[in-house]
Automatic annotation (TrEMBL):
Residues 49-170 form the YbaK/aminoacyl-tRNA synthetase-associated domain. This is YbaK/EbsC family protein. InterPro entries: YbaK/aa-tRNA-synt-asso_dom_sf, YbaK/aa-tRNA-synth-assoc-dom. It comes from the Bacteria. Pfam families: tRNA_edit.
Length: 187
């Protein structure tokens, strides 16, 4: 298991870590606009877009899956009202969409947003979607294991960079809800 210090050291050896606020060119516009609402340190580093997907990034850096969190967008409806949530889970887990998320959204059926819709509504690139800068009507559901992590890699909104921040920083996002058991381990 990686410590926060080891994660930062490995990333610093391979990438130029910078305060995210000083590098808006490495962020999607909605992410850059929402950055001032984030409490805590957020760093950004440029990557080759070819390694933007979690498995490729972890293989390239040698980091374990506990150092990366994925953000998936899920929707469902009840009585004609659509309910959307961004679910943030560790890379070695999967959001429990069919039970936990469905119950939290109070919908009959929950499903992932299509790629076109996720990209169009978030203003972010597929493979780079993160919770910072999502539309205000999206709930942000964070698995408790994510909220407890000392150092995490998440999407910056573009495939050409990633953010590095702590779980408590993510949990402090204005719309964040920390949920116990939001995700299940991948077999």
């Amino acid at each position: 298991m990686e410590t926060a210090h080891n994660t930062v050291a490995r990333l610093s050896a391979q990438f130029d870590l910078r305060p995210a606020a000083s590098a808006p060119e490495l962020l999607a516009a909605p992410t850059a606009a929402a950055l001032p609402t984030v409490t805590g340190e957020v760093e950004v580093f440029a990557i080759d877009p070819v390694i933007a997907d979690t498995a490729a990034l972890l293989a390239a850096t040698g980091l374990g899956p506990e150092t990366s969190a994925n953000c998936v967008l899920v929707a469902g409806s009840r009585s004609g009202e659509e309910r959307i949530a961004a679910c943030l889970v560790l890379a070695h887990t999967r959001a429990d969409v069919n039970k936990r998320v469905k119950k939290l959204l109070d919908v009959r059926k929950a499903s992932f947003l299509t790629m076109d819709r996720a990209v169009g509504e978030s203003g972010m690139e597929y493979g780079g979607i993160g919770p910072i800068g999502l539309p205000e009507n999206y709930r942000i559901l964070i698995d408790s294991r994510v909220a407890e992590a000392d150092a995490l890699i998440i999407g910056s909104g573009i495939r050409g960079s990633k953010l590095l921040l702590s779980g408590p920083t993510l949990a402090s996002l204005p719309a964040a809800e920390v949920i116990e058991g939001l995700a299940n381990e991948i077999d």
